[in-house]
Write a structure and sequence with these properties.
The complex is a heterodimer of chains A (about 300) and B (about 200). With about 300 residues, chain A is of the alpha/beta class. Helices cover about 30% and strands about 15% of the residues of chain A. The chains are: A alpha/beta (about 300), B alpha+beta (about 200).
């Protein structure tokens, strides 16, 4: 046990080389550990213990969920100065949502993207929106030459316009790749994200062939008077920094029977939404009577978002 | 103006003063458990601005009949520039139509269908639907013209545009417009892809 005597105080001249090296290794190890843990101390500053210990959305009991919603409302009040109501909208039996878009009448005005920006409490500085309107050459569906950044009077006579948002795939690659099951498909067909469970690895963003997911690089900045107070846990509540978000067909609206914000904003009536299980619904009429197609059908994603020409 | 619109229930019984034509509707025959689909309608016959203001500061407008009752209809006129007074700046870009293709030369406060029947202005969609059958069909099925409100009519009503909400009847092609902001994809200003 001669070593235990030396560990207590490694003074030069009294210790063996072995002990000195051990001391050096321990010191470096401690320093590296402290450095590695340093972000955690900063991170914990705006992370409450409740949030750290919060369970996955699907495992929350009614009382736990109530507390979580109350905490999120309070955090929104503290951080953004806005009084909001965060509700938990659940899917309803007998409802399967479908969406169709008429490419003949879409003029590419981006009113849908603007409505999404406002409705879903997107970061103001980035113009973020779940909808990306692609300007395409007439007679072609070549996405490599699609331009989402056009800024001229629309519609251009040589172009057509194809808004792309989450297709709520029945075989969603984004869900399959999530390593922590923070995103899943609900029984009414909507693919959702638990923003408090997401670890921000962005696998889903890479997996989505429609470029439909967005990552919150920064904490979203929205003036208090512009915040939409009608919010839902899985939908348009203000997302934290470092998590992925996506279109939910305005889950907080459609699960109340209302139409999505992008549809109401469309000045040309290009958008058709409804319950695909209702044989009298508008969406069913379009699916039954128009030549609809889905984007990148060959990938087998089985989207619930359909395009058609009228 | 034509664009000043009133809202009327299309599920309601036809009003007695309405012409023989029914308002087009996307709703199935009134289901008592469903909320109505309300289709926008013009308030009535258009009023022509005289450019004068009354003692209260209100625009003085006159009905079509004020002038047209004493004027002989000229079926050859097809655009504003052919006139010597009134409607001179009316842009007309609607195929080969002339004024009396749609306006009733016997009563300019009404419209006239292709078969000669008179039609009140509130039922203008009946007139448009004579030629634009595919659009009329799509509208009736909810696939043309847009809407606001509820997809689920067991929970709330729905409001729909009429033809002339979006299409100026004299030049109905949808106009070009400036798009709203382009996306910045979360990138800082100056580093975005160029249009």
């Amino acid at each position: 046990m001669s070593e235990s005597r030396n560990i207590s105080l490694p003074v030069l001249g009294q210790v063996s080389r072995r002990t000195a090296l051990k001391g050096l290794g321990a010191t470096l190890g401690l320093a590296a550990f402290a450095k590695a843990m340093a972000p955690l101390t900063e991170w914990a500053a705006d992370l409450s213990l409740d949030e750290f210990l919060q369970k996955h959305y699907t495992e929350l009991g009614p009382d736990e969920l109530k507390r979580v919603l109350a905490r999120l409302e309070q955090e929104t009040r503290q951080q953004y100065g806005a009084d909001v109501t965060i509700t938990d909208h659940r899917p309803e039996p007998g409802v399967q949502f479908g969406y169709a878009l008429n490419l003949t009448v879409c003029i590419g005005c981006r009113r849908c993207a603007e409505a999404c920006h406002i409705e879903n409490n997107h970061d103001r500085a980035t113009n973020n929106s779940y909808i990306r309107v692609l300007e395409m050459n007439k007679g072609s569906l070549d996405l490599d030459h699609a331009n989402p950044h056009y800024d001229h009077a629309v519609p251009h006579p040589d172009k057509f316009y194809m808004p792309v948002q989450c297709h709520q795939c029945d075989n969603p690659p984004c869900v399959h790749v999530c390593p922590v099951e923070a995103t899943w498909k609900e029984s009414d067909g909507i693919v959702v994200v638990d923003y408090n469970w997401c670890i921000g690895c962005r696998y889903c963003e890479a997996a989505c062939p429609y470029h439909a997911r967005r990552f919150n690089w920064t904490k979203p900045q929205i003036p208090a008077n512009e915040i939409n107070p009608d919010q839902s846990y899985l939908s348009n509540r203000i997302r934290p920094q470092g998590v992925v978000e996506k279109c939910t067909y305005c889950l907080h609206r459609v699960r109340e029977g209302r139409l999505p914000a992008c549809l109401e904003a469309c000045p040309t009536g290009a958008r058709v939404f409804g319950n695909m299980l209702d044989p009298d619904s508008e969406i069913r009429w379009v699916l039954d009577n128009k030549r609809v197609f889905v984007l990148k059908e060959d990938l087998g994603t089985q989207p619930r978002f359909f395009y058609f020409f009228s | 103006m034509l664009m000043s619109l009133a809202v009327a229930g299309c599920d309601a019984e036809p009003e007695p003063e309405a012409g023989p034509a029914r308002q087009p509707t996307s709703a199935p025959p009134a289901d008592p458990w469903l909320h109505p689909v309300l289709v926008n309608q013009p308030a009535g016959p258009p009023r022509i601005e005289t450019g004068r203001v009354d003692a209260h500061g209100h625009e003085v407008t006159v009905s079509c009949a004020t002038c047209h009752d004493v004027l002989e209809p000229n079926p050859a006129v097809s655009r504003g520039q052919q006139l010597t007074e009134f409607h001179l700046d009316l842009e007309m870009a609607h195929g080969e139509l002339t004024c009396v293709s749609c306006h009733n030369p016997g009563n300019y406060d009404q419209l006239r269908l292709a078969d000669g029947r008179s039609l009140e202005f509130v039922n203008v969609m009946e007139l448009c639907g004579q030629c634009h059958g595919s659009q009329r069909r799509d509208f009736e099925q909810g696939a043309h013209g847009g809407m606001t409100g509820y997809w689920d009519r067991t929970r709330g009503p729905r409001q729909r545009h009429s033809c002339i909400d979006c299409h100026e009847p004299h030049a109905p092609a949808f106009p070009q417009m400036k798009p709203v902001f382009p996306p910045r994809d979360g990138l800082p200003p100056g580093t975005q892809p160029q249009p």
